[in-house]
Design a protein that fits this description.
It is a single chain. The protein is of the alpha/beta class. The protein folds into two domains: 6-112, no CATH class; 123-251, Rossmann fold (3-Layer(aba) Sandwich), CATH 3.40.50. It is 59% helix and 9% strand. It has helices at 6-43, 47-73, 82-112, 138-153, 173-183, 200-207, 226-235, 250-268; strands spanning 123-126, 158-162, 191-194, 217-222, 241-246. It has a five-stranded parallel sheet. Helix 4 (138-153) links the parallel strand 1 and strand 2. Helix 3 crosses helix 8. The longest helix is centred in the N-terminal third of the chain and has 38 residues, at 6-43. The relative contact order is 0.13.
Amino acid sequence: MKTQPAAMRVPGIARRVIGDALILLALILAILVCVTMLRRIRAVVLKGDYRQVFHYQLILCGILLLFALDVRFGFFTRPRPLALKIPGWILRVAVAAFAAVIIAFSGRVIAGGMGRTAGEAGHVIVLGLALENGLPTGDLSRRLDTARQYLADHPDVVLILTGGNPDETGRTEAAVMRELLLARGVPDERMLLEDQASDTRENFRNTAQLLDPAAPVVLISSSYHMNRAVRLAEQAGFTRCLRLPAPSEPLTYGPNVLSEVILELNDLTKKQ
C-alpha cells in the first residue's frame, strides 16, 4: 500500500481542521440566531420586521455552512461525471463569493464598534432598541449605562433619547429610556425625547430638527450597530459624529452582527 509523503498530508490535515472549525462556528451561529430571534419575535410589537430579518439570517447561515462543508469535504467537487463537476465548480465559486461578502461586511460591522472617538459635544444621541414585552433589553440597558456615565463626566451635556415603536401600553422606546434614567438619578432637564421614529434613519432625520447637525454630537448605540448608525447620521446631515459604543450582550452579539450585515446589504439596494 502506498503512503502519501508528509508534505502532501499536511495540507489535507489543515483543511480538515479548518473545515471542522468552520462547520462548528456556522452551527453555533445558526443555533444562536434561532434562539435569539424566536425569543424576540414572541416579545416585540413589530414582529413582521423581525421575521423577515430572521429568514435572511437563516439564509446567510446556510451559505456559511455550505462554504464550511466545501472546505472540509470538497462538497461541490467530489469525483463525479464531468457534466456534474462543472456545475459543482460554479456553485463552489458562488458560495465562496457570498461567504466572502458576509465575512467582509461582518468585519466592517465589528470594526465600526471598536473604540470611541475623542472630542467634546453639547448633545448625546442615544439610539433606542425594540422593547421586549414592554421592557428594555440588556443591550438597551447598556446604552443607558453608557449615557449616564457620559453625563457624569460631562455636566453640561444634554441627552436626546430616540425611538418610537410604542408597545401594547403605548410607551415608546424613548419614554421607557427616560423613565429608567430618571430612576437612576438623571435630571429630567438633561433629557430631550424624539419618540416618533420607527427606525434608525428616522431617528436621525427627526433629531436633526432638534439641534444643529453641523455641531459635534456624540452617538451612543450598541457596538454592533455603531457603523451603520454613523453612516445614517451623516446621511441625515450630521457632519461631526463622535462614536461612543456601548457594550453588547455576548450571546446575542453574533446574531446582531448578522442582522447588521443584512441591513447594510439592504441599504445598498435602496436609493437614499
